[in-house]
Amino acid sequence: MKEIKKKIGIITLYGNNNxxxxxxxxxxxxxxSGMNFEVSTILFKxxxxxxxxxxxxxxxxxxxxKYKRIKKFKKFNKYLNLKLLSEKKVDKFDFIExxxxxxxxxxxPCFNYNQMFALSSKKERNFSYAASFGVNNVDDExxxxxxxxxxxxxxxxVREDQGKDIVEELIKDKNVEVLIDPTMLLTPQxxxxxAIKPEQSIDKKYIxxxxxxxxxxxxxxxxxxxxxxxxxxxINLLDPNDDFYLSGPSEFLYxxxxxxxxxxDSFHACVFSVLYGRPxxxxxNEDKERITMNSRLDTFIDKFNIxxxxxxxxxxxxxxxxxxKDAYKILENEKEKSRGFLEKTLKxx
Length: 349
Known about the structure:
- The protein is α/β, with parallel strands linked by helices and 349 residues long.
- Helix content is 38%, strand content 13%.
- It has twelve helices and eleven strands.
- The strands form three sheets. The protein has a five-stranded parallel beta sheet, with helices on one face. The chain has a four-stranded parallel beta sheet with strand order 9-8-10-11, sandwiched between helices.
């Protein structure tokens, strides 16, 4: 008789064409599937992200340049096992998992409590894995509704120390674990399975720049001067004028793995730099209009005891070296901790 696997529905962010978002989603699908579950990513029919994605897709379909980039992200969706359903249908799953990524960042313009806390009516089925608020504290006006939502989750794990503080402030006597981002649950070899070499020519060593926020002219000049000195090419992944802007999540993996240096303010760019053993520099977010999200990077650096990765105003040859020997030992312990949490939550003997 064919074994009937229990079903897990993942609730996470969707539709913003963000590398980290897609890759963490894939990591959970693959990891939980490896624990012998049938795993799906829930895409709500009422999802405003979906509507905006479709709107932008058709708006840009005549723009061949942008269409190619959107198409790369849509192609990656084949790995996520998307299930389109109504918010009222989540009870069809044996477990509802929320996270990872900034699923509880209520400052996002399109944040929707009904969808980011679309829980099963049976509390024991609901859990979060490495969920993130993306902010250091919750405004008073949002505390009551977030508290009510959190009270309907059986087991809670978050990605940052600040997230643990937030939950424990709102829900007394609640045991909250801080677990690694799901992207770190997979090995580099497993990531290589979905990595793709970009179609653009890479004829020499390069510095990979991936900035979510604004970067000052002085910072860009310092990167350019160092690249000129070393004879490196610069790849700006989020610059529409750069040929590599057309990269999707699979190409992103390849570019990180083969970069001589990664310059970034992105959490996931740092994670994959460590996984692939590549040197990287973290630049402070210089965009005054963006709410700081450095808590996740602070937790990451402290947890893995990674030093000398904060940009201090200059780039030297020392920035091209890295030693993650201790970080890898810590990572193995963190992976065991995460697996223990999931086995207990999912009632795996």
